[in-house]
Design a protein that fits this description.
By secondary structure, the chain is mainly alpha-helical. The protein is built from ten helices and no strands. The chain has helices at residues 2-20, 27-43, 48-56, 64-98, 113-129, 135-151, 159-175, 180-195, 199-215, 220-234. Helix 5 (113-129) runs antiparallel to helix 6 (135-151), helix 6 (135-151) runs parallel beside helix 8 (180-195) and helix 8 (180-195) packs parallel to helix 10 (220-234). It is elongated.
Length: 235
């Protein structure tokens, strides 16, 4: 039995190490790791008998119904918000990217560009509404895709969608105010909005890009975006 448990623990630590080569740590990967470390700590404790004695010394038992209720109240929300919602958001992002022939060589080419565009935007918006840690990536993907399509002349600028993206970016800047990517994306969106005749949007774009430059003065894309904004202002 001890040999089997040792192999399971070793396999768990190996799996954690391998997945860390490809993904950043999130709480879904931390929780099993900490549980495994706690289990190993108990197994290697110099006084396992004293722990057992203290547990047996508890004079009352928690009813099964109470245990199930606590599990439902604590574990179910953790599972829903920590696993289900991120999974749904990730699947929406996958659906969006799978429609892009530039990313997926097997993407269907039998649908119209307009339908492809609407499906990609819709799937990315669906991922954003899940309010999970995938939201940030989905929001950046939507901004880069949409602004890129507008500048390439593939789609017409939709003011409502631009306002939607800008509002979500403003919300993100309140949560993580030190991420330059937020201000860069915001400046790009507002720059496009300004080119539609909104002079106030140009001012907001300038402020956002100044913040991006302040946070990331060595990132070329930030300066490129700022130069693009000044080019639009001269026009």
């Amino acid at each position: 039995k001890e040999r089997i448990m040792s192999m399971i623990c070793l396999a768990g630590l190996t799996a954690y190490f391998i997945q860390n080569l490809f993904e950043f740590d999130v709480h879904q990967s931390y929780l099993p790791l900490f549980l495994l470390i706690a289990y190993l700590a108990v197994l290697t404790s110099p006084e396992p008998a004293s722990i057992s004695y203290k547990l047996k010394a508890i004079s009352y038992k928690i009813p099964l119904s109470t245990s199930l209720f606590l599990a439902l109240v604590i574990i179910a929300p953790m599972f829903w918000y920590g696993s289900v919602k991120p999974l749904q958001a990730a699947m929406s992002v996958r659906n969006a990217l799978s429609m892009d022939p530039g990313i997926n060589p097997h993407a269907s080419r039998d649908i119209s560009p307009d339908l492809r565009h609407r499906v990609m935007v819709g799937e990315l918006q669906k991922a954003i509404t899940q309010k999970s840690f995938v939201t940030w990536e989905a929001l950046l993907l939507l901004e880069r895709y949409y602004v890129g399509e507008i500048r390439a002349g593939n789609v017409a600028a939709d003011e409502n969608l631009l306002v939607y993206i800008a509002d979500r970016l403003y919300e993100a800047s309140g949560r993580v105010p030190l991420k330059y990517e937020i201000y860069l994306a915001l400046g790009e969106v507002l720059n496009v909005k300004g080119s539609m005749g909104d002079a106030e949007a140009y001012k907001e774009a300038s402020g956002a890009l100044e913040k991006a430059v302040e946070l990331a003065p060595n990132v070329p894309r930030v300066w490129y975006a700022k130069g693009t904004l000044h080019f639009g202002l001269q026009e």
